[in-house]
Amino acid sequence: MKIALMDSGIGLLPAAAAVRRLRPDAALLLSNDPDGMPWGPRTPEDLTARALDVARAAAAHRPDALIVACNTATVHALPALRAELEPRIPVIGTVPAIKPAAAGGGKVAIWATPATTGSAYQRGLIRDFADGAEVTEVPCPGLADAVEHADAEAVDRAVAAAAALTPPDIRALVLGCTHYELVEDRILAALTPRRTGGLPPIVFHGSAGAVAAQALRRIGAAPEPGAPADGTLSVLLSGRPGDLPATALTYPEGRLLASKAAAHSS
């Protein structure tokens, strides 16, 4: 079993780690685009062209499924990716977890890139799935880039700016960019001091676990966390074979993937 994941950078780490936990025996192929990152500021047409190049590089290795581990690429490029690759390769997009977050009602915030915040795509998800919840859309300029470069000070500045725009009494927070799941602890640390009056802890809603499970469902595979941990790891950098970026090892998800790869190669 081979699962490919694509993103401009290391935002694919949470979903890759989730697949690794569900199927330790799966071969993982990480296809990212250091030559073209970041994707967020690009026009939809330019982003789609970059995403197609990254997807084609992955498809050449004949994966059983391809996860688009990027919310912005899913917004703009998913139809083009599916038109080119399916049904030969199932393509799984990454959608903000608005529906489960809103299920309990109350106040919900969605943190996303400026390109996704306010987009017709996100507004459509809110319209269709957030009935009964009060939703605040929070743009997070610079946060994905700071996470990508493992710049802790820039991460904290961007998180603090987003926290200031977030109602202090939210019940749930949707992480609408895959990069943000890598710094969930920093986000929680910024939001917690603003909560008063005995409010319960904020429930975080990322996409990695759901996307990993959907990829397995699309290829008819069941989760087997106890399977032999002999899954391989391959990396493509704008189509060229390479290694995990050094910044990936800053995060637990990157270290998990690297340690499994090292153990297999030894």
From TrEMBL:
Q: Name one Pfam family in it.
A: Asp_Glu_race
Q: What is this protein called?
A: Aspartate/glutamate racemase family protein
Keyword Isomerase among record annotations: yes
Q: Tell me if Transferase is a UniProt keyword of this record.
A: no
Q: Which UniProt keywords apply?
A: Isomerase
Origin species: Streptomyces gulbargensis
Coiled-coil annotation: which residues? none
InterPro entries tied to this protein: Asp/Glu/hydantoin_racemase, Asp/Glu_race, Asp/Glu_racemase_AS_1
